[in-house]
Specification:
The chain is an all-alpha fold. The protein contains 20 helices and no strands. The C terminus is likely disordered.
């Protein structure tokens, strides 16, 4: 999962560089990013609402019994949920297609009429993608429940390749519409790569919808509060888009590019670790094993902190180098580059918090509690929108990033606070002790990175791509190496775990013993990152 996730994110960076070099940062891409809001609204509320919090815990409870009758019930639940989602997605897709001319002006009120027309066309094409994503994510939920991560991890790689195909091959012929066709093609590939794996674990499609099934009703009951929470989050994103559309041209593009850059480490480490830990946390609840839950939770949190705190500092200190290397093409103006870098620096302040939130929320979901994270999300969204309205007047698009970081820090602290109130000690002493060592090592690493950055600037041409790349890459590698040895010196448990895990993986690769089946059956599933 780590390898494919990193590959997917690098392809995402390549995708953004191609977009920046083809369309620039002056506002040509604003309709493309705004058009995503309509299909995202449907997909995130319905599909993610069902799977991230509801489907997996219920499905795991059935397959955990490991008897034929329970497996049959599990497949009945999976088919029912799949068919219900498909019907709802198709109906909503048709409605949004019809009423797109009325919806888009609400999403992007600052766009002139020609930009709104383009946004309407793009959103209508991309609505097709949500049908593929709906099926694909039910399949992903099944594979996660069985701890089969190989094809699931490859799916985002194929998705990005589809979009890149759209940029390189379709855009020269169809313009911005080619990007939308690329999104649909990528969504299809996202599904296709996972179908063989889900068939191997025993899934067979059946045209059934059993509303009366206890498992289906359970998923529906768990989904309702999660859906409300995701709806609130989507309102948050929509408000940010609305505000950005009223600012200078290109604000939506700058915001999305900076957000994509910060999502690289969040998805590679924070989300991936949370996804792998979720079935184990759900099993702990099903087995009524509190020690197993606390152990898995503590280990996942400490690993995320070990990885994300230094990455936050690296992103803050090397933000200009990152943006100029990834997006600094000729068509992407200096002003857009500067704003993107500053936004990335502001986002970096909350990277560790954003990476912890998926694990914290899933800790509630594993206990079939979807209400508490929703209430906390509502509070953080209200804070985000309020601060965004105020900060954007003072600082423009940078104010949106500041509001977003503050809201996510608040979200993380509230989730941890209420999780601890409910479940008691979460191995807090080890988490705090590790966190303090990690912070000290990260600060020392940051000092070394700053020194290297200025030293390298004396010997390379900072006006060229190669010079900027060398400065950022060398300073980053030296900083990461220093951090690794510092944490070894401080005897951080996490560096020992990661070192031992890497050695095990290397030995398995060298001996030719790694396979998807072995990966699925290993006891330490959470260590596949």
């Amino acid at each position: 999962m780590a390898a494919t996730s990193i590959l997917s994110r690098f392809l995402g960076l390549l995708r953004d560089r191609l977009l920046a070099s083809t369309f620039g940062g002056g506002g040509a891409l604003d309709p493309y990013f705004a058009a995503f809001k309509v299909p995202d609204l449907i997909f995130n509320i319905l599909v993610l609402g069902a799977l991230s919090s509801s489907f997996i815990p219920v499905f795991v409870a059935y397959i955990k019994k490991d008897d034929t009758a329970s497996r049959d019930e599990a497949w009945r639940v999976a088919n029912s949920i799949l068919n219900i989602l498909l019907i709802v997605l198709v109906i909503l897709g048709i409605l949004f297609y019809i009423f797109a001319p009325q919806i888009i002006p609400i999403i992007a009120p600052g766009f002139p009429s020609d930009k709104q027309d383009i946004t309407i066309q793009l959103s209508r094409i991309m609505l097709v993608a949500i049908v593929f994503f709906g099926i694909s994510n039910v399949v992903s939920g099944i594979l996660n429940a069985f701890k089969r991560f190989t094809s699931f991890a490859l799916a985002p790689v194929l998705y990005n390749l589809g979009i890149i195909f759209g940029i390189v091959v379709l855009t020269p012929r169809y313009g911005l519409m080619g990007l939308a066709y690329g999104v649909v093609f990528g969504a299809f590939l996202h599904l296709a790569i996972q179908v063989p794996s889900v068939v191997r674990v025993g899934f067979r499609y059946r045209r059934i919808i059993d509303f009366g099934h206890a498992g289906v009703r359970k998923i529906g009951a768990l989904m309702i509060p999660r859906t409300i929470g995701l709806a609130v989050n989507q309102v948050d994103l929509l408000v940010n888009t609305i505000i950005a559309s009223t600012l200078v041209a290109g604000s939506i593009t700058v915001y999305n590019f900076a957000n994509n850059l910060q999502n690289f480490p969040i998805n590679v480490f924070g989300v991936s670790l949370a996804i792998a830990a979720f079935p184990v946390l759900s099993e702990a609840f099903a087995e009524n094993d509190r020690n197993k839950f606390v152990s898995q939770f503590s280990e996942t949190v400490r690993r995320i902190l070990y990885l994300m705190i230094p990455i936050s500092i690296l992103f803050l200190l090397l933000r200009a180098q990152i943006v100029r290397v990834v997006l600094g093409a000729n068509a992407y103006s200096w002003e857009a580059t500067y704003l993107t870098a500053q936004m990335l620096g502001i986002f970096a302040l909350s990277l560790f918090a954003q990476s912890l939130i998926p694990t914290l929320a899933r800790s509630f979901y594993a206990h079939h509690d979807t209400k508490t994270p929703v209430k906390i999300a509502i509070v953080s969204v209200i804070v985000d929108i309020s601060l965004a309205l105020y900060f954007s007047r003072e600082y423009g698009v940078l104010g949106l990033a500041g509001a977003y970081s503050v809201a996510n820090l608040l979200n993380m602290f509230l989730l941890y606070y209420f999780l601890r109130r409910r479940f008691g000690n979460l191995d807090d002493t080890r988490i705090v002790r590790s966190g303090m060592k990690i912070v000290v090592a990260s600060i020392l690493m940051g000092t070394i990175v700053v020194g290297m950055k200025y030293f390298l600037a004396l010997g390379v041409n900072m006006k060229t791509f190669v010079g900027i790349f060398i400065q950022g890459a060398v300073a980053g590698v030296v900083g990461i190496s220093a951090y690794f040895f510092l944490t070894l010196l401080f005897r951080c448990e996490e560096v020992v775990m990661i070192r031992d895990w890497l050695m095990r993986i290397w030995n398995k690769i060298r001996n030719g013993k790694i396979s998807p089946q072995h990966e699925a059956n290993t006891d330490s599933t959470n260590e596949h990152h």
